[in-house]
Design goal:
alpha/beta, 8-stranded parallel barrel, 9 helices, globular, Chitinase-like, GH18 domain-containing protein
């Protein structure tokens, strides 16, 4: 996620009241004549564990009526040293291993049958250095990645893989072929049941993910698009336009909308994010919501996680 470096019951009540009161007027600004397909509750995804803030799964409110994924952040193919170096697909765990253990995963999955847990690969930095995709060769990177990722998946009893590289020392076709072979193997051999990618609107990033999508999009279940990487102060009409643009770029994909709880850019919940989501939901386009991240949400008692899930579970 790029540049990753919100109080009690009354506030939650006030936020929800404002949203519910203003929602109809805002929706009418964007009428649609499209046929509205039947929709199912969307998926909710929460990235967790990247910032070492002692957050664990049980802190996050979970609605049992939607599909819920935690994505552990991150596993990275770099050495865990003061000056990290790339390891050509040999992934190590970099999330908060004290508070996000295999036993924690077993407990949350036993308590909530709708919860799955995956891990995100790559991310922005590792120990202050860019976490760059830097394969020595396609064959060797894929071989190492399959071995190391399968080992982590089995140890932690994971269900999903998310691709979140943001820096590249390889051309788009090499990236596409490496990730294609990895995802194909993991799915074909039932190592994971769910895959996603996490691009954002930067030309040097987007070109790699579009090369992957256009050739091998059938291997990818969700596009966790980082809408919070757009400019701070994004408006409702702008977010809806960005959504349409990325729906065209990742044609046929299930694009998830997103916001950050670390005061990053994009359209914030306070400025109309849920209104935009309601418009998309009425149009049958809201496939899900993801949040970066649980670590940052803890200070505000996960108010937006609850609102996001309530919206996904609600009738249109």
């Amino acid at each position: 996620m790029p540049r990753k470096t919100t109080p009690g019951f009354q506030l939650k009540h006030n936020l929800l009241s404002v949203w519910m009161l203003t929602r109809p007027a805002l929706i009418n600004i964007f009428p649609t004549t499209e046929a509205i397909p039947a929709v199912c509750p969307g998926v909710f995804i929460e990235y967790i564990g990247a910032e070492g803030k002692n957050v664990t799964f049980s802190y996050v409110p979970i609605n049992p009526n939607i599909e819920f994924y935690f994505l552990l952040s991150f596993a990275i193919d770099y050495t865990n040293t003061k000056s990290p170096e790339p390891t050509n697909g040999n992934f190590l765990v970099y999330w908060d291993t004290d508070n996000l253990t295999p036993s924690h995963i077993s407990s949350i999955k036993a308590k909530y049958k709708n919860v799955k847990v995956g891990m995100s690969l790559g991310g922005d930095t590792v120990n202050g250095k860019n976490a760059t995709f830097a394969p020595t060769s396609i064959t060797s990177w894929v071989r190492n990645a399959i071995y190391s990722i399968t080992k982590i998946v089995k140890e932690y009893n994971l269900d999903a893989i998310d691709i979140d590289y943001e820096h590249f020392n390889a051309d788009p076709d090499t990236f596409a072929e490496c990730i294609r072979r990895l995802l194909y193997y993991l799915k074909q051999n039932n190592v994971v049941c769910y895959t996603s990618i996490a691009p954002y609107a930067d030309d040097s990033v987007q070109v790699h993910y579009l090369a992957l999508w256009r050739k091998y999009g059938h291997l990818i279940d969700y596009v966790n698009f980082q809408f919070y990487a757009y400019e701070k102060g994004t408006t409702i009409p702008q977010l809806l336009q960005y959504f349409e643009t990325q729906s065209c770029n990742f044609k046929g994909g299930k694009i998830l909308v997103s916001f950050g709880t670390n005061n990053i850019g994009g359209l914030s919940p306070k400025n109309g994010f849920f209104d935009a989501c309601t418009i998309l939901k009425r149009q049958g386009k809201l496939h899900g919501i993801f949040i970066w991240s649980a670590d940052d949400s803890m200070k505000d008692h996960f108010q937006y996680e609850k609102l996001s899930q309530d919206l996904l579970a609600s009738a249109v």
